[in-house]
Amino acid sequence: MGSYRLHPPQSGLAWEVADVKVLQQRLLAGTHAVVTGAGSGIGQGICVRLAELGAAVTGIGRTDSALQRTAELVARTQGNFQWFSADVRDCAQVRSVISEASAELGMDLLVNNAGGQFYAAADEISDKGFRSVVDLNLNAVFTVISEAKQFLARRGGSIINISLSGVERGSVGLTHSLAARAGVLAMTKTLALEWAHLGIRANCVAPGVVISDSLPGAIASDLRDRVVPESVPAGRPTPTADVAELVAFLATPAGRMITGQLLQIDGAAHLGRGLHMVDNWPPGEEGGE
Ligand SMILES: CCCCC/C=C/C(=O)SCCNC(=O)CCNC(=O)[C@H](O)C(C)(C)COP(=O)(O)OP(=O)(O)OC[C@H]1O[C@@H](n2cnc3c(N)ncnc32)[C@H](O)[C@@H]1OP(=O)(O)O
Ligand SMILES: NC(=O)C1=CN([C@@H]2O[C@H](COP(=O)(O)OP(=O)(O)OC[C@H]3O[C@@H](n4cnc5c(N)ncnc54)[C@H](OP(=O)(O)O)[C@@H]3O)[C@@H](O)[C@H]2O)C=CC1
Predict the structure, then answer these.
(1) What local confidence, expressed as pLDDT, does residue 14 receive?
(2) Which ipTM did the prediction report?
């Protein structure tokens, strides 16, 4: 048996199609979804798809113009979208917007998507830098969930925490973020236990590389042309639309027995050698964030 090596994807595969939408139209009509980090990238894609499926969607983020752009995209689908400007690291702001958004509507789906980090070696991360990333990717998730619980409990709602593919193993340059995401995974499993009797489900959805408009152009092309082909067994990035479709599926009754799970949507990247094994990745001072 030869050693395993990555092969470029064959041409003509069934998955070489534009964004695929498999869920029944209006499947989420009558539901209310709250999405953090709604003004760009994955969060924006999730908002648009949920609204297209009939959910009333509330988006949260810090930048009004970005949230306004999501509102415009949702409007094209005849969907229902409201947004609140808030920093998820600010507990008082979180409590205020979650309760204002959900007092009447209740909450059927909460997507904790706001997140991010900078790439840095562990010995280059200051205490403040570590805490800042953990605050965004772990502490804020707890605050949002804590406030949302009373509304999720009304009808039995679903929590989806957006994570990172490979969260169960290490990755060079991501000490702070992986520490936070591992904490979120443990939190997710624990809440799946504690709140199962309320009908509240909790799962993590962990995308592999998603090349969205938010990434700087040089990073995006390096990921697409070199890093992904060299590290993702499927040889391709994860489309935002695929993440949105999975999130929507988990929110439907068909997902009612799925809870406490980590769903990695990454073309087997988590089983591969890891992005950090590719030369010149993570990006250093020349190309990094
Ligand atoms: C399958 C795996 C895929 C992997 C790819 C993953 C991709 C993504 O996650 S895409 C998401 C895209 N967006 C982002 O990642 C967001 C980019 N980052 C940020 O927005 C910010 O860095 C932040 C939110 C994570 C932190 O912001 P903030 O709290 O405002 O932090 P400050 O600027 O005030 O800095 C605090 C502290 O952190 C130090 N620091 C910041 N950048 C770096 C750096 N590159 N290297 C080292 N240290 C850094 C900064 O210096 C401050 O510390 P002190 O110097 O001690 O004050
Ligand atoms: N892109 C990728 O390859 C991957 C991304 N992920 C994860 O998916 C999630 C979304 O990433 P992606 O769409 O790529 O990145 P973006 O940077 O486009 O999205 C992050 C969003 O979160 C918002 N946000 C950031 N900080 C805060 C805050 N303190 N309060 C409220 N909102 C905040 C940002 O808006 P604003 O700054 O206006 O507040 C932004 O809209 C993140 O958790 C990311 O780590 C996971 C795997 C791979």
Answers:
(1) 76
(2) 0.96
